[in-house]
Amino acid sequence: MQAVILAAGEGRRVRPLTLSRPKAMIPVANRPIIGYVIDALVKNGIRDIVVVVGYRREQVIRFLNEFDLPIKVVVQEKQLGTAHALRQAEPEISGDFIVLPGDNYIDAASVASIRKYRAGILVKEHPNPSNFGVVHLKDGYVESIVEKPEANTGCTVSTGIYSLKKDFFSIINSNNTMTEAIAAMLHANQQLQAVPADDWQDAIYPWDLLKMNARLLKRLTAVREGITSRQTTIQGAVRIGRGSVIGPNTVIMGPVVIGCNTTISPNCCILPYTSIGSRVNIEPFTCIGNAIIMDDTTIGSHSRIIDTVIAERCQIGDHTSTCTTEGVLTIEGVPSRAGFGAILGERVRSSPGTIFRNCIVGNNATIEGDHDLVTRIIDDNALVI
């Protein structure tokens, strides 16, 4: 069986984290999301993989070159939707295949379930179905899919993972979406089996990455390749990369993953469900928990970073706090309620004493002065004084 992974989209609702990468390449538990999709396929013996790339394609291709697999890459020159992206893979498909989004986490057991069917869809119960295609079923088969309904018409949603026959390509035209193509398939009296997913998660908004990170860290295997002080306390599953140094009197409570050549100074506290990238510098007396800290970022001393995502090359001043607060933020024109500390894009610089509460800060933004920022979105390249 073949597999098609769709990794051409930007992921506009996850901005500012997709300025320099497609959504599929966002690191979760220190690894791009698409890597977990490939793992799930390989564990099922599926090695004939086609990846559709588009936005920031060079990053995806570079990552795919790390795999010892015969992965074929095809390009969607313009991002015209998932059905159009799938159509680009048609010349590489010779028979039955699975199609998967490259920016969703899926486990191997779910892939094993869907591959049993020549025409199937993985479905999952979800508390917020309005962000997905809601699937209506009859006797285990799909009757219809309603994309992002305004009214709550059900809690069973499409994961975007299908098993399909090659003739499905004849249904796709230049204008329709995957949902419309599936509707056309059903209208032609073709059946689509609904298959419950075992473990799946999408990150619709940037704060959803924290849930995905926690989910993946629960499977973490402890490995210590760095240097830890005798006075360092480590509990639970903790992975420390080569060249990293953990200072004395620092406490790390797993699951936690730390990349390579990272320095965590003395007297720090790293709480569970934290991913820290490579070449990160955490200065003394800082506490971090339930967070994703990406590569080449520095966090100043006496800071408290909780429920937060910080992208690459940020400079966070000392005595900075991110405080979990619930608020309503408008993302791509849609009001969304969420509770988190902060989402910081690349190269954000903040002055000492800054407090972030339920804030999204754009790439290359600078925060001057000891501001208390509450439930707001700060644009790319902004200067807050």
Short recap of the structure:
Helices cover 13% and strands 38% of the residues.
Task: Characterise this structure.
The chain is mostly beta strands and 385 residues long. It is built from six helices and 37 strands. Strands 14, 16, 17, 19, 20, 22, 23, 25, 27, 29, 32, 34 and 36 form a 13-stranded parallel β-sheet that branches. The chain has a nine-stranded parallel β-sheet with strand order 15-18-21-24-26-28-33-35-37, with no helix packed on it. The longest helix is centred in the N-terminal third of the chain and has 10 residues, at 33-42. The protein is globular. The mean pLDDT is 92.
Instruction: Tell me the CATH superfamily of the largest domain.
Output: Spore Coat Polysaccharide Biosynthesis Protein SpsA, Chain A
The assigned structural class equals mainly beta
CATH architecture classification of the largest domain: Alpha-Beta Complex
| Principal-axes shape call | globular
CATH domain class of the largest domain: Alpha Beta
